[in-house]
């Protein structure tokens, strides 16, 4: 551990280059322990060299497919013995380069740790291995009357969602992963296996290690199991969609809804280019205007109808028109399918393009200003840009549709993203509401956290003194 001249900021050292002898030795040991579930195949390494982000792929030297927490511990011990980094890998859907093996090493792919260990209907929790996806969990919960509400919009693993602090469309009512994880099983950098939290709904016993590891992006330990909160499926559900004259009017509707205490379950904002993209892709006929998609949950149809009535009135006050609601499951599904297809609809606007997706989150009172700034700033972009927002909690995304053969476009997108992040930070917000930091947003942490960043470095150095766990991510060197 080294310090700067002021002596108040621990620095994270970069791992030394991986040696071929270390890789060969580790591969022999891991083959003995795991058999063909330890691979150095070029195809497998390439598959695990990237997620869904715009960052340059980086190949691991070895990819392992453990089935148990104990096997993860063996992998980490072998990697430490041979001086190799360890990179956790889930579904590969991350958007900030979390899974790229930028220093080589051993990628631990957790997709085969996909067993649901326990479902408790009485205590409303599920105990799962890290490779279980939220789609798989909810399929298992069919006919139980329960559901897992986290919905990041992709088929993510529970472990990856915990590691990145994910959320999604339902966070406005049901919270993020930080609110929905009761406990974790984690393998530390020295191979120790620890368990944080309990199956109880709350605890004030000791440090909250569960939430320390949620959002740690594999830099403090490898999450192998999670105990997650489950929720009863609401008795009554309604969806609605409404177009607005201006984005400010749409955002002010959301602010008024939140201030009135309407327990809205989802509220999503799409700008004009995104609505146009959805119409083209899904053959819908929404008015090309700033548009809000709503979902309402309640104990009975009367309660839900009251919520819809209040929000419809607020929408009309702020320039909303053609407010359409739906209660039948097939009608609701059709509405939300349009929203869930937003990413693919945007890609279809520019065939052959690659999407760079970025996000910020601000206090909801500052949301209209931040979105207005971003829209004005992005109007000059030489490529299509669309906006999608989880506006009930102040979070929105910009989708840049870039020509992968034109590096100048990527540079322009980075400049625009940085401008938006800086505005969000100036408004008391954060550089990432749900995508995490990974490789892409480390440079903003000093501005956002100030002296707290030194404390984060101290925690990292304490738990991973050799910087072997996902090095080069989250905490700036």
Describe this structure in words.
It is built from 17 helices and 18 strands. The chain has about 475 residues and is of the alpha+beta class. The chain has four domains: about 20-110 and about 445-465, Uridine Diphospho-n-acetylenolpyruvylglucosamine Reductase, domain 2 (2-Layer Sandwich), CATH 3.30.43.10; about 115-230, Uridine Diphospho-n-acetylenolpyruvylglucosamine Reductase, domain 3 (2-Layer Sandwich); about 235-340, 2-Layer Sandwich (Alpha-Beta Plaits), CATH 3.30.70; about 345-435, 2-Layer Sandwich (Alpha-Beta Plaits). Helix 9 packs antiparallel against helix 14 and helix 10 crosses helix 13. The chain starts with 19 loop residues before the first helix and ends in a 14-residue tail after the last helix.
Offer a few descriptive terms.
477 residues; alpha+beta; Uridine Diphospho-n-acetylenolpyruvylglucosamine Reductase, domain 2; Uridine Diphospho-n-acetylenolpyruvylglucosamine Reductase, domain 3; Alpha-Beta Plaits; 7-stranded antiparallel sheet; 18 strands; 36% helix; disordered N terminus
């Amino acid at each position: 551990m080294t310090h700067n001249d002021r002596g108040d900021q621990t620095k994270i050292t970069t791992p030394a280059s991986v040696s071929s002898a270390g890789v060969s030795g580790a591969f022999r040991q891991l083959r003995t322990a795991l058999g063909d579930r330890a691979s150095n195949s070029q195809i497998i390494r390439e598959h695990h060299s990237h997620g869904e982000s715009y960052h340059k792929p980086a190949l691991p030297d070895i990819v392992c497919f453990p089935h148990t927490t104990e096997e993860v511990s063996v992998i980490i011990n072998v990697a430490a013995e041979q001086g190799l980094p360890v990179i956790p890998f889930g579904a590969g859907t991350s958007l900030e380069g979390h899974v790229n093996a930028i220093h080589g090493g051993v990628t631990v792919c957790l997709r085969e740790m996909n067993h649901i260990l326990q479902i408790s209907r009485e205590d409303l929790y599920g105990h799962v291995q890290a490779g279980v996806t939220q789609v798989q969990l909810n399929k298992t919960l069919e006919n139980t009357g329960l559901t897992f509400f986290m919905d990041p919009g992709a088929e993510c693993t529970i472990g990856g969602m915990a590691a990145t602090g994910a959320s999604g469309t339902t966070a406005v009512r049901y919270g993020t992963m930080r609110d929905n994880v009761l406990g974790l099983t984690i393998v530390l950098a020295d191979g120790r296996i620890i368990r944080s939290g309990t199956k109880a709904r709350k605890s004030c016993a000791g440090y909250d290690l569960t939430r320390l590891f949620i959002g740690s992006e594999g830099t403090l330990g490898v999450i192998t199991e999670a105990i997650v909160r489950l929720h009863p499926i609401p008795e009554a559900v309604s969806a609605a969609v409404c177009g607005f004259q201006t984005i400010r009017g749409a955002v002010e509707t959301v602010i008024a809804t939140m201030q009135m205490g309407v327990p809205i379950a989802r509220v999503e904002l799409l700008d004009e280019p995104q609505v146009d993209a959805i119409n083209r892709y899904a053959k819908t006929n929404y008015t090309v205007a700033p548009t809000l998609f709503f979902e309402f949950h309640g104990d009975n149809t009367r309660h839900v109808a009251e919520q819809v009535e209040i929000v419809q009135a607020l929408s009309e006050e702020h320039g909303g028109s053609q407010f359409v609601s739906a209660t039948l499951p097939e009608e609701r599904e059709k509405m939300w399918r349009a929203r869930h297809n937003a990413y693919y609809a945007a890609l279809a606007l520019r065939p052959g393009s690659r999407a760079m997706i970025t996000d910020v989150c601000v206090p909801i009172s500052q949301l209209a200003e931040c979105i207005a700034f971003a829209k004005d700033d992005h109007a000059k972009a030489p490529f299509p840009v669309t906006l999608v927002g989880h506006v009930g909690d102040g979070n929105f995304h910009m989708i840049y549709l870039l020509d992968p053969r034109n590096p100048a476009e990527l540079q322009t997108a980075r400049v625009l993203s940085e401008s938006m992040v800086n505005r969000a930070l100036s408004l008391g917000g954060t550089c990432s509401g749900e995508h995490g930091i990974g490789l892409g947003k480390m440079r903003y942490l000093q501005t956002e956290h100030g002296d707290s960043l030194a404390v984060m470095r101290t925690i990292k150095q304490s738990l991973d003194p050799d910087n072997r766990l996902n090095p080069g991510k989250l905490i700036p060197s």
